[in-house]
Amino acid sequence: MGANASSPRWTDDPCGEQLDAYIRCATKYGGKEPEEYEEYCESERSLARFVSASAQEAHPVGALLTSSFGPFGRDHLIVSTITNQLKVTKSGKAGLDGLFPRKSTIPPELHLLLIEIKALEREAGDGASTLGIMAAAALQEMTDLHLSDGACVRLARALRELRAGSAWHHLVHETALRCNAVAPPNATTGVAQVAASALQGQFPPQQERALVEALVKWIAGAASNCGGLGAAAWSAASTADRLLVPCIGQRGPQVLGVSAFALSRPPMYRIEAQQGSARTQEVRQARFTVWLCALAAIEARDNAAVYVDSAESLEHAVAYSAARTVANLELLHTRAQVNLLVCTKVLHQVALDTCERLGILVVQSVSESEARDLCALAGTTPIVDTSVFSLLSESASVSTTSPFSRFVGRAARAAETRIGGSICVLIEGIKAGPASSEISCGQVLVHGPTLGLAKEYAASLARAARLVALWAKEFEASMKDTSRHAHHTLGHNLVAVGAAWESALASVLASMSTSASLERNTFEANAVLSVLRAAARAIPLALVPHDARQKLEVKLRRAELSEQEMFTCIRWDAAGQWALKETRIDSLGSDSAGRREPVALKIRQLERLVSFLEQTLRVDALILGANVAKK
């Protein structure tokens, strides 16, 4: 079977030429060009030996996985002893993801299919990624079977042609037509409904399972010469459907999930080949592992904004998409151990509530350029903004080439209306332990334009915690003082951060100092919580001079803050006192006072982000001094 000259080409396909060469090798291996084919096989065997030797040289990493850059990047590897992953880093090369250990029984043609599956998953969006996950999981069960050259090449060609359309309904429709999926009538109906649906993610679970069944039977039918493939594929697909449910039909704000181990900065090693051996060197800059995903819950209740055939379908779409969003976040938190989400848009309330419950830190409204730079530094494929789904454009207007894209545009404008522009809200994430009165700040959600402003809010919360610790320490000392004078002088030792903070402190101190018995005036955790909550509400108002505070309160309620007012920040001066300073803070914390820096992320700026995260997640350590056991 010769190469198909009518196959579409993509200018952004970094593996196109090499894939063409591989297909030529596979299709011509009938005695015409055995030397080229043998050279390819030897190349694959050399990589496998190098990976094995590198892993043994670095650390015994259990189950080895090659990274998303595959066999095309052989300059160096990075091994994480925490995640047991072997990561290939080669700039500009994207290819095969080693979803299972290499085996000598895997024919080279199977790599053609895996390359296309991975490319489909990475390029065609979240809906296609489920196809990639299911197909890869099914093929994982086939590694001991011998696929014919022709079957592998046909599958690779079919997948490559499907990559021409990134829309989910087009992908499903073409999968059913081109691959002649053998499926029961209900499965065929489910695929048709998905293809005609304007809202991705509104189809019920039984139709979703039917879609998976169609895919599995397509794989089984295309490689029917392999006995027992259907049962093995079914087992793998059902396992993948149970563990990797997230991606079918979800579109929304692009989210970067940063794993927990990135915050603790475990040892990572670069492995370089040296004449058949491997040399390791610790890498200190590689601190992030980033995933790309999309979270989109349907919140609109108006048929004018959502394309559905009935009110019942709309209610189902709302409920189903909300449940799927919760499942996605729980999967990221439990299986991927993600504790930070960096989002290019403002997440909907379902996602925010779930993040707060799981203890995931959310930083929203990060610009597309910063997200791309963070992906580049982390070695992850950048976000792709397609012409059909312009979800990452700065404006709310999107292409109207499909009903779904029109819905996205309406949803974006509705989101802007709902939040009232770019405002910052500090969500309370403080809780008290029932036994030991321990206080911890486990959650800070930031609605706002930049990471720089989020850093200022995190720092302000930390300062408020230090003030509470100071108050608790002096109050505990005053409890031991026989004189009641200490209660009246306590307020002079505190640094005021706003009217609400002062009012809350005065109220708590007054109630404690006027109580009949000092023994009953033990330190209560809920009293500190009330002060901290008041401080959280007062901190934004403390960022401006007192005479403008009342005016700002009105603007804050009406969401009419100007850009300059939004970027008013508070800092420590040389004497350790509060100092007001108006400055422009960009999204990476750089100011405009002679130290303007480019928006592009650099290693030092990435370290700033790490510092901000550590500071935010360790606020509980700052208020440990406020813990006094109940008597």
Describe the protein's architecture and organization.
- The chain has 3 domains: 16-32 and 99-243, no CATH class; 254-265 and 286-419, no CATH class; 430-626, no CATH class.
- Helices cover 49% and strands 10% of the residues.
- The chain has helices at residues 16-28, 34-58, 108-123, 126-140, 149-162, 168-179, 185-196, 205-222, 229-243, 260-264, 311-334, 349-358, 368-378, 403-419, 451-479, 485-489, 499-513, 525-542, 549-558, 563-566, 603-617, 619-622; strands spanning 76-80, 85-88, 254-259, 268-274, 277-282, 290-294, 338-343, 361-363, 430-432, 439-441, 445-446, 568-572, 578-582.
- The strands form 4 sheets. The protein has a 5-stranded mixed β-sheet, sandwiched between helices. Strands 2-1-4-5 form a 4-stranded antiparallel β-sheet, with helices on one face. A two-stranded antiparallel ribbon has the order 9-10.
- A hairpin with a 2-residue loop joins strand 4 and strand 5 (277-282).
- Helix 3 packs antiparallel against helix 4 (126-140) and helix 6 (168-179) runs antiparallel to helix 7 (185-196).
- 40% of the residues are buried.
